[in-house]
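pipeline stage [seq->struct] | target=ATP-binding cassette domain-containing protein | organism=Duganella levis | residues=292
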Amino acid sequence: MSLQIVSPTGGIAPLLRAEGVSLEYGGTRATHDVSFDVYRGDRFVLLGPSGCGKSSLLKAAAGFIAPAAGSIAINGAPVRGPGPDRIVVFQEFDQLPPWKTVKENVMFPLLMTKRVSRHEAAERAMHWIGKVGLSGFEDAHPHTLSGGMKQRVAIARALAMQPEVLLMDEPFAALDALTRRKMQEELGRLWEELRFTLLFVTHSIEEALVVGNRILLLSPHPGQVRAELNSHQFDLASAGSLEFQAATQRIHGLLFGEAATAVAVSPAHAGDHAERAVKRSMDSGVRRNDGL
Ligand SMILES: Nc1ncnc2c1ncn2[C@@H]1O[C@H](COP(=O)(O)OP(=O)(O)O)[C@@H](O)[C@H]1O
Ligand SMILES: [Mg+2]
């Protein structure tokens, strides 16, 4: 099956809705009129070249920055600031306070938000530390851990909060290739088990295909929606296949200036919501940018 340009429709309300979101820094536009819907259980990927505003969109969803125009809503309620329903895992390994042990790091947001007692926070922390494969390291401090292990702690800390949406900003980009692959695999395994909702940012086409079930393609700076694709059929096992390579090429073309073609699409898969084709006009004057 080839990649299909799709747009979710149907009666199901999205969990997270971005509508016409333009983000600005001091009058400079980082994204322009970006709209997308994330449904419960989606692994929704924002894909585009460096500087196209992926992190800014994630920060807006997290409530760290406010749109200059447009809106972002969770369960129909406008995002007005950060909240425990949206937890971010960043790329940087220093997102863990170094003076806290692994267990204390995972417990910290649970205690801060007064969600549970100290006893229950400790129990939950141990549970999630186990889930990310770090049993035995609960009393270790971050500086004694590898990059991959630190990212596991950040994932455990996020999932322990049981957020409505897990937000991940290039969480594996600073890892070596093998560790990155392993982490992608484990994220997939966790998702299979827990079916959380994921909003994931990457500039890697391959990672987008492996991690996502839906991908929003953003044009170079300022980020605008190029297309939305269905990618549920791909995973690490299919990563070397001809079909996967064709999808990679296709996305590259869509991102960097291939002439727009509307794709006739039948309902793409038996997902949680119906999908239909959309015709999106593509800006043909896009700069080629191999920095993706
Ligand atoms: N704090 C900031 N102040 C000023 N400009 C920023 C800030 N953060 C991001 N930008 C600019 O906004 C644009 C989008 O950045 P960003 O969201 O980080 O893109 P991406 O994550 O896709 O690489 C870039 O041009 C970047 O320079
Ligand atoms: Mg970024």
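stage status: PASS
auto-comment: Residues 54-55, 169-170 surround magnesium ion (ligand 2) (CB under 6 Å). The helical segments are 54-62, 102-112, 118-131, 147-160, 177-194, 205-211, 242-255.
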